[in-house]
Structures are given as C-alpha cells and as structure tokens.
Automatic annotation (TrEMBL):
Gene3D superfamilies: 1.10.287.370. This is Prefoldin subunit 1. It holds the Pfam family Prefoldin_2. GO terms for cellular component: cytoplasm; prefoldin complex. Keywords: Chaperone, Coiled coil. PANTHER family: PREFOLDIN SUBUNIT 1, PREFOLDIN SUBUNIT 1-RELATED. Residues 73-121 form a coiled coil. It comes from Monosiga brevicollis. One of its GO terms (biological process) is protein folding.
Amino acid sequence: MDPEIRKAFEEVQRQSQETAVKVQLTEQQIQKYSGDKRRAELTLAEVNQVPEDTRLFRAVGKCFVLETRSTVVSGLDNKVAECEKEVASLQNKRKWMEESLAQSKANVEELLRQRQEMASS
C-alpha cells in the first residue's frame, strides 16, 4: 500500500476516534443541560401555582434563602433560557464535528480514487 494512502488512513482513523469521544462527551453535556432545563421548567410550573404572597426559599449550598416569588420565577426563567442556549450551542458543535469527520473521510476516498485512476492509466 502506498505510504501516502496509509498515512491518510491512519489520520482519518485517529480523527474518527477523537471525534467519537468528543461527540459522546457533547451528548452527555446535552443530556445534562436538557435535564436541568426540564427540572427548572417543572419547578417554574409549581411556583406559578402558588399565591403571590407565599414565602419561597431557594437552596444555596446547604442552606435556604428566603426570596420573593418574582425573584424565584425570574431565576428559573433565566435558568431555562441558559439551558436552551447551551443545548443549541452543543448541538451545533456536534453537527460541526460530524461534518468535519465526514469531510475527512471523503478526502481519503477521493485520494484512493485518484490513485486507482493513476494506476489504471
């Protein structure tokens, strides 16, 4: 086998392994942010059901802090928006990595095809 082709295959294989690990990590982060978003949405739904004058507490480390309902709602809304933004960013990152890997594989296939055409000429 041609050393140039062997080197290209090894490079694509290395990139493929690295990308697979990065995609898996990105998937885990997407799941984490999706879970955080879901918890914030469920908490927000429950908070919206209580009367306006209800005393609400927010967990801070090992203690709880008394807050107004509007502050709690605002914090939960911010958390939902932040999680949505992170999930969208991570999905774009995953898509880019997959496209990059596909392009690398296509380049190697093109190199092989060119070598075969040169050999048959």
